[in-house]
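Predict the 3D structure for this chain.
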Amino acid sequence: MVLHSIVNEIDSRLQQAWQPSMRASIEKQYITGLYRYMEWSSYRYGEKQITARIVGLAPFGQLKLETSDNVLLVCDLKEIAFL
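Done. Predicted structure below.
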C-alpha cells in the first residue's frame, strides 16, 4: 500500500511537471524547501569563504546565490559547499 501511494504521488507530480502552468508552482515549492533558502550563511566557493544566500534557481538547475557584497553567483552544486 505504501509503495502504491508513493508511485501515485510521483506520477501525479510528473503529470503536473509537463503542464507549463504548473511548473512555476512546482519550482516555488522546491525553492522554498531548500536548506538555508534566503538565509545569510557561510559557504566555500572555489578556494574562498563567502557569505551569501540562496535566492533561486537558474534554468538548468544551478543555484543562484547573492553574496553579501551584492554579486549574483550561479553555481553548480559541486562548486559550492555549506560551512
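DSSP finds two helices and five strands in the chain.
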